[in-house]
Design goal:
The protein is of the alpha/beta class. The chain has 2 domains: 10-181, Vaccinia Virus protein VP39 (Rossmann fold, 3-Layer(aba) Sandwich), CATH 3.40.50.150; 189-266, Orthogonal Bundle (Helicase, Ruva Protein, domain 3). Helix content is 36%, strand content 19%. The chain contains 10 helices and 9 strands. The strands form 2 sheets. It has a 7-stranded mixed beta sheet, sandwiched between helices. Helix 3 links the parallel strand 3 (53-57) and strand 4. The structure holds S-adenosylmethionine (SAM).
Length: 267
C-alpha cells in the first residue's frame, strides 16, 4: 500500500467540502487561514467568494499546484511551510479551516488555542479526536484534549464523514468540529502553555490517582504533591478524569506560585 505522506488523505467529496466551507464562511473574521490546503478542494470555495485567504501548506509540489490553480485570484496567499513554525499575523482576526493532517492534530489545535486573535475554527479531525475534544467529565474520552479545548473554547461537533469521502481512504471515520473562543475563558493566554503541560502530566498515567500520576510524571515527591493537591482542594484519590477545569486551573496557580513551578517545563 502507498505510504500516506504528511497525513495526505485528500477530501474528494464536493458536497462535504461545500458543507464545511458554508459553515466556515458564515463566521466573522478578516482573514481565513487554511491549514494544509492540499489540492485546494476547500480553498476553492473560499477563494471564489472573494474572502482573503492565507493557505499554509508544507508540501512544495502542492504549493506549486495551488499557485497555478489560483493564479488569477488576488485574494489568496500561499505560504509554503510548516504550520507549526508559521508566525501568524497578529493584527487581523483570523478564522481557521482545515482537514487536519492527523499525525499532528494535537500540536495544531494547541497552537490555535494559544493564539488570541481568532474567532472560529472549523476542523475535520478523526472521529475519536472530536469525541475527546467534546467529552464530559468522568467519561472515558475526557482527557487533556477535552480540558485544553474547553478551558478556552466552546466545542461543537457538527457531523461525521465516512472514509470513502477521501483518497486515499483512511481506516477511520472523521468528524467536523467547530470551535469558538469563550468570552470568559478559564485560563489567561500567558498561562495556557503551562496548563496544557499540567494536564498532559496528569493524564500521562490516567489509570492512576491524580496524586500518583502527577508525582510520577513531574518527578515530585508524593508528600509534596499531596500538599499541593490539598491547597487546591482536590481529593488525592480521584482519577485525572474526575477533576474539572477550574480545579486544574487552581492546581496550576498553586504550582506556579510555588518553588516547583519549573517542573512543568519538562512536560
Ligand atoms: N485540505 C485538503 C483536503 O481537504 O483535501 C488536504 C487535507 S490532508 C488531510 C492534510 C494536508 O496538510 C496535506 O495537504 C498535507 O500536505 C498538509 N500538511 C501536513 N503537515 C503540514 C504542516 N505541518 N503544515 C502545513 N501543512 C501540512
Amino acid at each position: 500500500m502507498k505510504k500516506v505522506l504528511y497525513g495526505q488523505n485528500f477530501l474528494i467529496d464536493k458536497n462535504i467540502a461545500a458543507k464545511i466551507t458554508n459553515i466556515f464562511l458564515a463566521g466573522n473574521y478578516d482573514t481565513a487561514v487554511e491549514i494544509g490546503p492540499g489540492k485546494g478542494i476547500l480553498t476553492e470555495n473560499i477563494v471564489i467568494q472573494g474572502k482573503n485567504i492565507l493557505a499554509v501548506e508544507i508540501d512544495r509540489q502542492l504549493c506549486c499546484h495551488l499557485e497555478k490553480k489560483f493564479a488569477k485570484y488576488p485574494n489568496i496567499e500561499i505560504f509554503c511551510g510548516d504550520f507549526l513554525k508559521w508566525d501568524p499575523p497578529t493584527k487581523k482576526i483570523l478564522g481557521f479551516i482545515a482537514n487536519i493532517p492527523y499525525y499532528i492534530t494535537s500540536p495544531i489545535i494547541e497552537k490555535i488555542l494559544e493564539m488570541g486573535n481568532w474567532s472560529i475554527a472549523v476542523l475535520m479531525v478523526q472521529k475519536e479526536v472530536a469525541d475527546r475534544m467534546n467529552a464530559r467529565l468522568n467519561t472515558r474520552e475526557y482527557g487533556n484534549l477535552s480540558i485544553a479545548c474547553q478551558s478556552v473554547c466552546k466545542v461543537k461537533k457538527l457531523f461525521d464523514v465516512p472514509p470513502h469521502c477521501f483518497y486515499p481512504k483512511p481506516k477511520v471515520y472523521s468528524s467536523v468540529v467547530q470551535i469558538t473562543p469563550l468570552s470568559h475563558p478559564f485560563i489567561a493566554f500567558k498561562q495556557r502553555k503551562k496548563l496544557f503541560s499540567l494536564i498532559k502530566a496528569a493524564f500521562f498515567h490516567r489509570r492512576k490517582t491524580i496524586l500518583n500520576s502527577i508525582s510520577i510524571s513531574l518527578n515530585l515527591q508524593k508528600q509534596l504533591v499531596l500538599e499541593l493537591l490539598r491547597q487546591a482542594n482536590i481529593e488525592i484519590s480521584l482519577r485525572p478524569e474526575s477533576i474539572n477545569i477550574p480545579e486544574y486551573v487552581q492546581l496550576l496557580n498553586i504550582i506556579d506560585n510555588s518553588e516547583h513551578k519549573n517542573t512543568l517545563k519538562n512536560f
